[in-house]
Design goal:
By secondary structure, this protein is α+β, with helices and mostly antiparallel strands. The chain has three helices and six strands, in the order αββαββββα.
Length: about 130
């Protein structure tokens, strides 16, 4: 079981890091409307805001590692952020990389941070090849 989780995490990480290199716009279905998204690079400050929001609910937020983070901006002005987070659980062991999804805007900061299967679905919906 641990092996499967590690292999799944490695596969998701490989796909996400491949998305950063891909520079083609993608048409996505976001909230019922068609939207075009294109890869963007987050500033260090934006990246830190995303990380801070995602670590709020962790047992050990200081142990959080982010092996992959990718972003796509939509023509609506929203920036969709997907990646992996790994942190220590209640037993002090790393739980394994978990996919995450969040939305970033200059005006509102980070919203809708989520992890797991829902994150994978939202990342796919917004143009990431997960």
């Amino acid at each position: 079981m641990i092996r499967t989780n590690s292999l799944s995490s490695l596969l998701v990480w490989t796909i996400l890091t491949g998305c950063v290199a891909a520079q083609s716009p993608t048409t996505t279905a976001n909230t019922g409307a068609s939207e075009t998204t294109a890869p963007v690079v987050l500033t260090p400050g934006q990246t830190e805001l995303v990380k801070a929001e995602l670590t709020k609910g962790l047992k050990d937020p200081y142990s959080a590692q982010f092996p992959a983070i990718a972003a796509r901006m939509g023509n609506s002005g929203l920036t969709y952020v997907c990646g992996l987070v790994n942190a220590k659980n209640g037993f002090g062991a790393y739980a394994g990389a978990t996919p995450f999804y969040a939305i970033y805007t200059e005006k509102n900061g980070v919203s809708l941070p989520t992890t797991g299967d829902i994150a994978i679905q939202m990342c796919r919906r917004n143009g990431f090849n997960v």
